[in-house]
Amino acid sequence: MSITISAVRPRTSILDKSLSRGRGEVSLSCYALLFSELVQYCQNRVYTVPELQNKLAEMGQEVGVKFIDLLFVRERSYKREIKILNILLFVKSTLWKALFGKEADKLEHANDDERTYYIIEKDPIVNKFISVPKDKGSLNCAVFTAGIIEAVLNGCGFPAKVTAHWHKGTTYMVKFEDSVIARDKQLEDR
Amino acid sequence: MSRQGTRLDTKNVNSELFTLTYGALVSQLMKDYTNVEDVNKQLERMGYNIGIRLIEDFLARTGSGRCYDFRDTADKIQMGFRIFLGVTPTITNWSSAGDEFSLQFESNPLTEFIELPDHCLNLKYANVLTGVLRGACEMVQMEVTSWFAQDQLKGDTVTELRVKFVKRLEDAIPAGED
């Protein structure tokens, strides 16, 4: 009798296959309906809007973490970013293109706070078919995307808090930790 | 509903976003439920909800009418997979009575990047698809049931989704009115 170590004999592991070029597509209706199920599922397990947003953001983070490796291996030949501006541009263009097939509409720096940046998207895909009920006015399901961004930034060594707001469409507010700003200044000095 | 001259939106989404979003959903379910069977059931139910709405999109896009027989249905299901998921499964293994067939997938956008850990072997990862088929067919007065006969995630060479015709639904009451 042989000793079973794993119940499944792996044919090939993921790492044996070459990385796909990421050109595959599914229809928007398919994605919208899946996202709708995801939102409904989260909603059924919480009581308040903030709780729901947290839950959606958590799910987004799961997605974001996985996109980091995928994109840096595929698009950037393993080179990571070390400066704030570059990582933000990476999010605005590379990440956005991979996720939504286009760049984000705008990237802005807050006038009054050097830690804060805004990524503005007029019409996020995830919100396309969502009408927010009156009693949940503050809910923006794009917090899911905010979760993705947050996970990417954190995973790249730029700890930040990312939130989604109804402003010029949807605005993602990226607030970096102080340490990130301090480090960036050091880099500038050199 | 649809205005004259409005072109149907045929926009697509990157399949990796889709794959990973589905993955996040499944792993959340695995965290929330202790029993894997419950996860399978939940996925099927979500699929059903998707199916009953997706069929409308399918009819609008293809303008297809009533099916002549179950083989016709099989072709349309195959077309549905091509339109919505961008994959074309092979239709094979018809039962002699013509009420059962298999869809074979070489690849499946839902399971890209996926490896099942040992403690999840009972998880039917792509079970959402069985729900989608049930929901979609129910809306056109057909009861079907489907299950995974083979699964690449479990070491099989192909993924095989077996679809069985159960009965024609007569005088169906619209969903939510019973």
Automatic annotation (TrEMBL), chain A:
It is found in: Endoplasmic reticulum; Golgi apparatus, cis-Golgi network. This is Trafficking protein particle complex subunit 5. Keywords: Endoplasmic reticulum, ER-Golgi transport, Golgi apparatus, Transport. Belongs to the TRAPP small subunits family. BET3 subfamily. It comes from Timema podura. May play a role in vesicular transport from endoplasmic reticulum to Golgi. Its main location: endoplasmic reticulum. It comes from the Eukaryota. Part of the multisubunit TRAPP (transport protein particle) complex. It holds the Pfam family TRAPP.
UniProtKB/TrEMBL annotation, chain B:
Its main location: endoplasmic reticulum. GO terms for biological process: Golgi vesicle transport. One of its GO terms (cellular component) is Golgi apparatus. The keyword Ion transport does not apply. Keywords: Endoplasmic reticulum, ER-Golgi transport, Golgi apparatus, Transport. The keyword Transport applies. It comes from the Eukaryota. InterPro entries: Bet3, NO_sig/Golgi_transp_ligand-bd, TRAPP_component. Pfam families: TRAPP. It is found in: Endoplasmic reticulum; Golgi apparatus, cis-Golgi network. Belongs to the TRAPP small subunits family. BET3 subfamily. Homodimer. May play a role in vesicular transport from endoplasmic reticulum to Golgi. PANTHER family: TRAFFICKING PROTEIN PARTICLE COMPLEX SUBUNIT 3. This is Trafficking protein particle complex subunit. It comes from Timema monikensis.
